[in-house]
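Posted in: Protein Modeling Q&A

I'm a second-year student putting together a small comparison for a lab meeting, and my supervisor asked me to include a predicted structure for ATPase BadF/BadG/BcrA/BcrD type domain-containing protein. I've never done this before, so apologies if this is the wrong subforum. The sequence is pasted below exactly as I got it from our records. If anyone can share the C-alpha coordinate output, I'd also love a short note on what stands out.
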Amino acid sequence: MKYVIGIDGGGTKSILHMMDLDGNQLFELQGGPTNIYATSVEEVERELSELLDHTAEISGRSIADCAALCLGSAGVDRPYEKQVLSGVFEKCGVTGSLTITHDAEAVLVAGSGKQEGITLVSGTGSFGFARDLSGNRARAGGWGHLIGDEGGGYDIGITAIKAAIRSYDGREAPTLLLPMIMKEIGIERPELFLQYVYKTAGKPQIASLAKVVYEAHLAGDGRAKRILDDAVNELYLMSATLIHTLHFKDRDITLVANGSVFTHIHYVYERLAELVQAEFPRITVLKPARNAAYGAALIALQSLQKC
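Accepted answer (user: helix_wrangler)
Welcome! Here is the predicted structure, written out as C-alpha coordinates:
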Protein backbone atom coordinates (compact mmCIF):
# COMPACT_ATOMS: atom_id res chain seq x y z
CA MET A 1 0.00 0.00 0.00
CA LYS A 2 1.34 3.41 -1.00
CA TYR A 3 2.06 6.15 1.54
CA VAL A 4 3.83 9.50 1.89
CA ILE A 5 6.46 10.73 4.35
CA GLY A 6 7.23 14.16 5.73
CA ILE A 7 10.44 14.84 7.65
CA ASP A 8 11.22 17.86 9.78
CA GLY A 9 15.01 17.73 9.56
CA GLY A 10 16.40 19.53 12.58
CA GLY A 11 19.90 20.22 13.78
CA THR A 12 19.47 18.22 17.00
CA LYS A 13 16.56 15.90 16.18
CA SER A 14 14.24 15.00 13.33
CA ILE A 15 10.56 14.07 13.23
CA LEU A 16 9.11 11.76 10.56
CA HIS A 17 5.38 11.80 9.83
CA MET A 18 3.87 8.99 7.74
CA MET A 19 0.38 9.27 6.25
CA ASP A 20 -1.67 7.30 3.75
CA LEU A 21 -2.81 8.73 0.42
CA ASP A 22 -6.06 9.91 2.02
CA GLY A 23 -4.12 12.13 4.42
CA ASN A 24 -4.62 9.96 7.50
CA GLN A 25 -1.72 9.81 9.95
CA LEU A 26 -0.16 6.38 10.29
CA PHE A 27 2.50 7.27 12.86
CA GLU A 28 5.36 9.58 13.78
CA LEU A 29 8.95 8.75 14.65
CA GLN A 30 11.83 10.73 16.11
CA GLY A 31 15.41 10.44 14.94
CA GLY A 32 18.72 12.24 15.17
CA PRO A 33 19.97 15.38 13.39
CA THR A 34 19.45 15.53 9.61
CA ASN A 35 20.38 19.12 8.80
CA ILE A 36 23.53 19.19 6.66
CA TYR A 37 24.61 22.47 8.24
CA ALA A 38 24.41 21.04 11.75
CA THR A 39 26.30 17.83 11.07
CA SER A 40 28.19 16.06 8.28
CA VAL A 41 26.56 14.73 5.13
CA GLU A 42 27.72 11.25 6.16
CA GLU A 43 25.95 11.58 9.51
CA VAL A 44 22.79 12.87 7.80
CA GLU A 45 22.87 9.87 5.46
CA ARG A 46 23.24 7.49 8.40
CA GLU A 47 20.42 9.11 10.40
CA LEU A 48 18.02 9.19 7.44
CA SER A 49 18.82 5.58 6.57
CA GLU A 50 18.09 4.48 10.15
CA LEU A 51 14.90 6.56 10.28
CA LEU A 52 13.56 5.12 7.02
CA ASP A 53 14.57 1.57 8.00
CA HIS A 54 12.71 2.01 11.29
CA THR A 55 9.70 3.31 9.37
CA ALA A 56 9.64 0.23 7.15
CA GLU A 57 10.04 -2.04 10.17
CA ILE A 58 7.15 -0.48 12.12
CA SER A 59 4.78 -0.12 9.16
CA GLY A 60 5.61 -3.40 7.48
CA ARG A 61 5.79 -1.52 4.20
CA SER A 62 8.72 -1.27 1.83
CA ILE A 63 10.41 2.06 1.22
CA ALA A 64 9.64 1.36 -2.46
CA ASP A 65 5.95 1.93 -1.56
CA CYS A 66 6.70 5.52 -0.54
CA ALA A 67 4.90 7.48 -3.27
CA ALA A 68 6.29 10.85 -2.16
CA LEU A 69 8.63 12.25 0.46
CA CYS A 70 9.26 15.81 1.59
CA LEU A 71 12.15 16.96 3.77
CA GLY A 72 11.84 20.39 5.36
CA SER A 73 15.08 21.64 6.89
CA ALA A 74 16.62 25.05 7.55
CA GLY A 75 18.78 26.40 4.74
CA VAL A 76 18.31 23.53 2.29
CA ASP A 77 16.12 25.10 -0.41
CA ARG A 78 18.97 26.00 -2.79
CA PRO A 79 20.18 23.85 -5.72
CA TYR A 80 23.37 22.61 -4.00
CA GLU A 81 21.60 21.33 -0.89
CA LYS A 82 18.85 19.73 -2.97
CA GLN A 83 21.42 17.91 -5.09
CA VAL A 84 23.28 16.58 -2.05
CA LEU A 85 20.15 15.44 -0.24
CA SER A 86 18.60 13.94 -3.37
CA GLY A 87 21.68 11.74 -3.59
CA VAL A 88 21.29 10.74 0.05
CA PHE A 89 17.64 9.73 -0.42
CA GLU A 90 18.52 7.82 -3.59
CA LYS A 91 21.03 5.78 -1.57
CA CYS A 92 18.30 5.16 1.00
CA GLY A 93 16.10 3.60 -1.69
CA VAL A 94 13.55 6.41 -2.11
CA THR A 95 12.16 6.28 -5.66
CA GLY A 96 8.94 8.27 -5.25
CA SER A 97 8.38 11.98 -5.78
CA LEU A 98 10.93 13.95 -3.73
CA THR A 99 10.59 17.50 -2.40
CA ILE A 100 13.38 19.22 -0.46
CA THR A 101 12.54 22.61 0.94
CA HIS A 102 13.03 25.02 3.82
CA ASP A 103 11.43 24.02 7.11
CA ALA A 104 9.57 27.35 7.09
CA GLU A 105 7.54 26.10 4.14
CA ALA A 106 6.64 22.94 6.04
CA VAL A 107 5.52 25.07 9.00
CA LEU A 108 3.43 27.20 6.64
CA VAL A 109 1.59 24.17 5.28
CA ALA A 110 1.18 22.73 8.78
CA GLY A 111 -0.56 25.94 9.84
CA SER A 112 -2.50 26.92 6.72
CA GLY A 113 -2.91 23.65 4.84
CA LYS A 114 -1.56 25.15 1.63
CA GLN A 115 1.70 26.31 0.09
CA GLU A 116 0.80 29.98 0.11
CA GLY A 117 1.18 32.48 2.91
CA ILE A 118 3.74 33.62 5.44
CA THR A 119 5.76 31.85 8.11
CA LEU A 120 7.19 34.04 10.85
CA VAL A 121 9.61 32.28 13.20
CA SER A 122 10.70 33.64 16.55
CA GLY A 123 12.69 31.13 18.55
CA THR A 124 16.33 31.57 19.48
CA GLY A 125 16.58 33.64 16.31
CA SER A 126 13.99 35.07 13.92
CA PHE A 127 13.14 34.57 10.30
CA GLY A 128 10.35 35.38 7.86
CA PHE A 129 9.37 33.37 4.78
CA ALA A 130 6.60 33.85 2.25
CA ARG A 131 5.41 31.93 -0.80
CA ASP A 132 2.60 32.37 -3.29
CA LEU A 133 0.90 29.72 -5.40
CA SER A 134 3.00 30.68 -8.42
CA GLY A 135 6.08 29.57 -6.51
CA ASN A 136 7.43 33.07 -5.87
CA ARG A 137 9.31 33.22 -2.57
CA ALA A 138 10.53 36.00 -0.30
CA ARG A 139 12.61 36.11 2.89
CA ALA A 140 13.24 38.64 5.64
CA GLY A 141 15.57 38.39 8.61
CA GLY A 142 17.44 35.26 9.59
CA TRP A 143 20.87 36.90 9.55
CA GLY A 144 22.12 35.39 12.78
CA HIS A 145 22.54 36.77 16.28
CA LEU A 146 25.50 39.06 15.53
CA ILE A 147 23.92 41.10 12.72
CA GLY A 148 20.23 40.20 12.86
CA ASP A 149 17.64 37.89 14.41
CA GLU A 150 15.72 40.88 15.75
CA GLY A 151 12.65 39.86 17.71
CA GLY A 152 14.04 36.43 18.55
CA GLY A 153 14.78 35.04 21.99
CA TYR A 154 18.51 35.82 21.88
CA ASP A 155 17.83 39.42 20.89
CA ILE A 156 15.33 39.79 23.73
CA GLY A 157 17.67 38.12 26.24
CA ILE A 158 20.84 40.06 25.42
CA THR A 159 18.90 43.34 25.34
CA ALA A 160 17.57 42.54 28.80
CA ILE A 161 21.09 41.89 30.11
CA LYS A 162 22.22 45.25 28.69
CA ALA A 163 19.28 46.99 30.33
CA ALA A 164 20.09 45.32 33.67
CA ILE A 165 23.71 46.46 33.49
CA ARG A 166 22.76 50.00 32.49
CA SER A 167 20.39 50.05 35.46
CA TYR A 168 23.18 48.88 37.76
CA ASP A 169 25.45 51.65 36.46
CA GLY A 170 22.76 54.27 36.97
CA ARG A 171 22.51 54.99 33.23
CA GLU A 172 18.90 53.84 33.26
CA ALA A 173 16.14 53.77 35.83
CA PRO A 174 15.93 50.78 38.20
CA THR A 175 14.41 47.67 36.63
CA LEU A 176 13.28 44.30 37.90
CA LEU A 177 15.37 42.76 35.14
CA LEU A 178 18.54 43.16 37.21
CA PRO A 179 17.61 41.02 40.23
CA MET A 180 15.43 38.65 38.22
CA ILE A 181 18.10 37.81 35.64
CA MET A 182 20.79 37.48 38.33
CA LYS A 183 18.58 35.01 40.16
CA GLU A 184 17.80 33.10 36.98
CA ILE A 185 21.44 32.60 35.98
CA GLY A 186 22.70 32.13 39.54
CA ILE A 187 25.06 35.06 40.05
CA GLU A 188 25.32 37.15 43.22
CA ARG A 189 27.08 40.25 41.85
CA PRO A 190 26.45 42.17 38.60
CA GLU A 191 30.18 42.00 37.81
CA LEU A 192 29.70 38.27 37.16
CA PHE A 193 27.67 39.09 34.05
CA LEU A 194 31.04 39.37 32.30
CA GLN A 195 31.94 35.75 32.91
CA TYR A 196 28.41 34.57 32.18
CA VAL A 197 28.09 36.32 28.81
CA TYR A 198 31.63 35.94 27.51
CA LYS A 199 32.59 32.51 28.87
CA THR A 200 29.65 30.51 30.18
CA ALA A 201 26.48 31.12 28.21
CA GLY A 202 25.77 30.17 24.63
CA LYS A 203 22.98 31.41 22.41
CA PRO A 204 20.32 29.04 23.85
CA GLN A 205 21.05 30.12 27.43
CA ILE A 206 20.79 33.81 26.63
CA ALA A 207 17.68 33.22 24.50
CA SER A 208 16.05 31.44 27.43
CA LEU A 209 16.13 34.73 29.36
CA ALA A 210 13.28 35.95 27.17
CA LYS A 211 10.93 34.24 29.61
CA VAL A 212 12.39 36.35 32.46
CA VAL A 213 11.64 39.49 30.46
CA TYR A 214 8.05 38.33 30.11
CA GLU A 215 7.84 37.63 33.85
CA ALA A 216 9.19 41.10 34.60
CA HIS A 217 6.64 42.62 32.23
CA LEU A 218 3.82 40.75 33.97
CA ALA A 219 5.14 42.13 37.26
CA GLY A 220 4.73 45.66 35.89
CA ASP A 221 8.30 46.47 34.82
CA GLY A 222 8.24 49.20 32.16
CA ARG A 223 11.70 48.42 30.77
CA ALA A 224 10.75 44.80 30.18
CA LYS A 225 7.61 45.90 28.33
CA ARG A 226 9.65 48.18 26.06
CA ILE A 227 11.98 45.30 25.19
CA LEU A 228 9.02 43.12 24.24
CA ASP A 229 7.42 45.96 22.29
CA ASP A 230 10.65 46.47 20.35
CA ALA A 231 10.69 42.76 19.54
CA VAL A 232 7.08 42.92 18.34
CA ASN A 233 7.87 45.93 16.14
CA GLU A 234 10.76 44.07 14.50
CA LEU A 235 8.59 41.02 13.86
CA TYR A 236 5.85 43.23 12.47
CA LEU A 237 8.35 44.91 10.14
CA MET A 238 9.39 41.48 8.84
CA SER A 239 5.75 40.56 8.29
CA ALA A 240 4.85 43.81 6.54
CA THR A 241 7.90 43.53 4.28
CA LEU A 242 6.87 40.05 3.14
CA ILE A 243 3.24 41.08 2.68
CA HIS A 244 4.26 43.93 0.39
CA THR A 245 6.91 41.91 -1.46
CA LEU A 246 4.45 39.24 -2.57
CA HIS A 247 1.49 41.63 -2.87
CA PHE A 248 -0.57 39.94 -0.17
CA LYS A 249 -2.09 43.13 1.24
CA ASP A 250 -5.51 42.76 -0.35
CA ARG A 251 -5.71 38.98 -0.31
CA ASP A 252 -6.96 36.40 2.19
CA ILE A 253 -3.61 35.07 3.41
CA THR A 254 -2.51 33.18 6.53
CA LEU A 255 0.50 34.22 8.61
CA VAL A 256 1.74 31.29 10.68
CA ALA A 257 3.61 32.39 13.82
CA ASN A 258 5.94 29.66 15.02
CA GLY A 259 8.71 29.30 17.60
CA SER A 260 9.29 29.37 21.33
CA VAL A 261 8.80 33.14 21.72
CA PHE A 262 5.32 32.96 20.21
CA THR A 263 4.54 29.80 22.16
CA HIS A 264 5.61 31.00 25.60
CA ILE A 265 5.37 34.80 25.47
CA HIS A 266 1.69 35.40 24.79
CA TYR A 267 2.10 39.17 24.80
CA VAL A 268 4.40 39.06 21.77
CA TYR A 269 2.04 36.85 19.77
CA GLU A 270 -1.10 38.76 20.70
CA ARG A 271 0.43 42.18 20.08
CA LEU A 272 1.87 41.10 16.73
CA ALA A 273 -1.53 39.76 15.65
CA GLU A 274 -3.14 43.07 16.61
CA LEU A 275 -0.64 45.11 14.59
CA VAL A 276 -0.83 42.91 11.51
CA GLN A 277 -4.61 42.73 11.44
CA ALA A 278 -5.00 46.46 12.08
CA GLU A 279 -2.94 47.26 8.97
CA PHE A 280 -3.81 44.18 6.89
CA PRO A 281 -7.32 43.08 7.92
CA ARG A 282 -7.44 40.23 5.40
CA ILE A 283 -4.37 38.55 6.89
CA THR A 284 -5.16 35.81 9.43
CA VAL A 285 -2.51 35.30 12.13
CA LEU A 286 -2.39 31.94 13.86
CA LYS A 287 -0.12 29.42 15.56
CA PRO A 288 0.24 26.03 13.86
CA ALA A 289 -1.83 23.28 15.46
CA ARG A 290 0.36 20.58 13.89
CA ASN A 291 4.13 20.18 13.64
CA ALA A 292 6.42 20.77 10.67
CA ALA A 293 6.72 17.04 9.92
CA TYR A 294 2.96 16.96 9.34
CA GLY A 295 3.31 19.97 7.05
CA ALA A 296 6.09 18.24 5.13
CA ALA A 297 3.90 15.16 4.71
CA LEU A 298 1.09 17.35 3.33
CA ILE A 299 3.55 18.86 0.83
CA ALA A 300 4.49 15.33 -0.22
CA LEU A 301 0.81 14.42 -0.62
CA GLN A 302 0.07 17.60 -2.57
CA SER A 303 2.99 16.87 -4.90
CA LEU A 304 1.14 13.73 -6.03
CA GLN A 305 -2.02 15.69 -6.69
CA LYS A 306 -0.10 17.98 -9.06
CA CYS A 307 1.13 15.05 -11.16
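A couple of things worth pointing out for your meeting: The CA atoms of residues 188 and 246 lie 50 Å apart. The chain has twelve helices and ten strands.
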